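Recall that a protein's primary structure is simply its ordered list of amino acids. Everything else, from secondary elements to tertiary packing, is in principle encoded there. The following example makes that idea concrete.
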Amino acid sequence: MTITLPREQQEWLEAQVKAGYYDSIEDAVASIVAEHMQLDIDDMAWAKPLVDEALASLDRGEGMTLEEYRRRMDERFGKLKR
């Protein structure tokens, strides 16, 4: 199989091989593909209750916007700088 990668990805793979993480680019690609295949197989059922809990919290109005979060953090960090 012949695959053409963007230059940045090819350079990254070459650097990984040069650093000794993989024996060859082929080895690197095979390892990375195998890792991603495992991610597809892994059971994510454990996350469903956490997502359901978070959604329920938002439904109760317990969430905040990103702008509100940033405002609160700016206030807290402002107090630390004094």
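The radius of gyration is 22 Å. The chain is about 70% helix and 0% strand.
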